[in-house]
Amino acid sequence: MSNKTAKLLSLLDGQPVIPVIKIADVKDAVPLARALARGGLPAIEITLRTDAALDSIRRVAAEVEEAVVGAGTILNARQFDEAAKAGSRFIVSPGLTREVIAAASGSDVPLLPGVITPGEIMAAAEAGLDFLKFFPAEQAGGAAFLKSLASPFGGIHFCPTGGIGANNAKDYLGLPNVICVGGSWVAPDEMVKAGDWAGIEALAREASKLRKK
Ligand SMILES: O=C(O)C(=O)C[C@H](O)[C@H](O)COP(=O)(O)O
């Protein structure tokens, strides 16, 4: 295992589900991160899909001591650097490019890059990356596909994300090459918009019980 993977795993601290969050209004960032942490999911991924994302990361990093804030949907080196400067403790990308790999290798902030195919996994391994996001998990072949990657790629572990919910998370968490899953189901847009923090805390609490066997 690489040093950066060890660092990322220690940040995630056995958490089975990483909430993937989209924040439209920066004022929601702190109460949302607090609700998820109260529910047992302190490590969260705020996606750079909205204008409020970087400010949200800054706020959570500064104000929510109990949270471990990461950035998601990082598509290039500029976004990697901005997200790292904003205080992201880890960086998630839907894919794997030379540019993002280079940005990560010049930074202390660990990268969780997205892959699907054996060739992409081999390219990641060549870059020293051994903990990878499997995205989009359900659409690309699901737990059966991921299971079949375990034999040829014994040293590689995954965080599948995409189409995963309370109903199927266990299918993934039961696999030997899966460490955690990612998903937006614990912080649905409508509950965030409605400020339903108690509801989100309850969803997080359920998800946090999905411990790996
Ligand atoms: O853009 C990224 O970097 C991502 O992380 C993609 C997200 O992981 C998925 O969009 C979450 O998938 P759902 O749980 O199906 O909503």
From TrEMBL:
- A Pfam family cross-referenced in the UniProt record is Aldolase
Pathway connected to this protein: Carbohydrate acid metabolism; 2-dehydro-3-deoxy-D-gluconate degradation; D-glyceraldehyde 3-phosphate and pyruvate from 2-dehydro-3-deoxy-D-gluconate: step 2/2
Q: Which reaction does it catalyse?
A: 2-dehydro-3-deoxy-6-phospho-D-gluconate = D-glyceraldehyde 3-phosphate + pyruvate
Q: How does it assemble?
A: Homotrimer.
The protein here is known as: 2-dehydro-3-deoxy-phosphogluconate aldolase
- Which Gene Ontology MF annotations are present? 2-dehydro-3-deoxy-phosphogluconate aldolase activity
Any stretches that span the bilayer, and where are they?
none
Q: Which UniProt keywords apply?
A: Carbohydrate metabolism, Lyase, Schiff base
User: What is the species of this protein?
Assistant: Mesorhizobium hungaricum
Query: What top-tier enzyme class does this entry carry?
Result: lyase
Q: Could you tell me the EC number(s) of this protein?
A: 4.1.2.14
Similarity section: Belongs to the KHG/KDPG aldolase family.
* Keyword Lyase attached: yes
Ranges in a coiled coil: none
- Specify the domain of life of the species encoding this protein: Bacteria
Organism taxonomic ancestry: Bacteria, Pseudomonadati, Pseudomonadota, Alphaproteobacteria, Hyphomicrobiales
